[in-house]
């Protein structure tokens, strides 16, 4: 890789717990991400606070997970709180090797049961004239809800982000019907990294035996050099999703 390209990784970390919530996996996730060495991380289901797990598990960190990962990986970090409850809250996080400028946490909640958001940050790769907009998203489980969220994201991008600015939209789209590429991406003139590189979406869920393609990396005003899923161990034992990565470059 040269200075004109960088790697972005999107990963639903399942609140730092094993797929069945029996074990804390923070250390394993951090070590695996450190080995990957991505420049920008878009993380979903990041626990900002969970008082009960703090008391129950010795290895569960006292600080927010985005801060803990930021310190471990030596990355700048930003957090967008989406869902709040008695024991704490969780949301999305962006971590970056480049200077990071947090902008806004966009509320795309459409029902009370699933509180969702899109975290808007900008990162500034060295030597690049323009910063790269990074949108880290987590969408609903039902297609009827996701249709409303596609529209909300489209409206936000059109209203808030310049058409010529480098843009990444990554996250857990819960899009097992594979409709977001046709609706959201085409609406915004974005390209999905796996469709571009492989001609199809690749499965990411469940991590142990992936059959559903739930995770996405969309880009605009950037070229996609490669895209890959992080398969096998240790990933199959860390979260219920597999992480996905793409190497992106200036056009």
UniProtKB/TrEMBL annotation:
Gene3D superfamilies cross-referenced by the UniProt entry: Endonuclease/exonuclease/phosphatase
Keyword set, alphabetical order: Endonuclease, Hydrolase, Nuclease
Span of domain Endonuclease/exonuclease/phosphatase: 10-241
Pfam family, one: Exo_endo_phos
Lineage: superkingdom: Bacteria
Gene Ontology molecular function: any one: endonuclease activity
Protein name: Endonuclease/exonuclease/phosphatase family protein
Originating organism: Psychrobacter saeujeotis
Lineage per the UniProt record: Bacteria, Pseudomonadati, Pseudomonadota, Gammaproteobacteria, Moraxellales
């Amino acid at each position: 890789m040269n200075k004109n390209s960088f790697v972005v990784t999107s990963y639903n970390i399942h609140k730092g717990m094993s797929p069945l919530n029996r074990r804390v996996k923070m250390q394993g996730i951090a070590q695996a991400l450190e080995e990957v060495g991505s420049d920008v991380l878009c993380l979903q289901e990041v626990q900002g606070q969970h008082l009960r797990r703090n008391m129950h598990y010795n290895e569960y960190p006292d600080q927010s997970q985005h801060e803990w990962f930021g310190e471990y990986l030596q990355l700048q970090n930003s957090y967008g709180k989406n869902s709040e409850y008695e024991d704490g809250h969780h949301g999305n996080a962006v971590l970056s090797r480049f200077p990071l400028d947090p902008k806004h946490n966009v509320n795309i909640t459409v029902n009370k049961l699933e509180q969702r958001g899109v975290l808007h940050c900008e990162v500034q790769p060295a030597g690049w004239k323009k910063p790269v907009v990074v949108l880290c998203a987590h969408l609903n489980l039902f297609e009827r809800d996701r249709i409303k969220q596609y529209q909300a994201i489209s409206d936000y991008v059109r209203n808030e982000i310049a058409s010529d600015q480098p843009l990444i939209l990554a996250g857990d789209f819960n899009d097992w019907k594979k409709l977001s590429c046709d609706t959201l991406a085409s609406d915004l003139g974005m390209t999905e990294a796996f469709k571009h590189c492989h001609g199809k979406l690749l499965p990411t869920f469940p991590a142990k035996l992936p059959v559903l393609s739930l995770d996405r990396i969309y880009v605009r005003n950037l070229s996609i050099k490669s895209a890959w899923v992080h398969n096998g161990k240790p990933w199959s034992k860390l979260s219920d999703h597999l992480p996905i990565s793409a190497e992106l470059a200036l056009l």
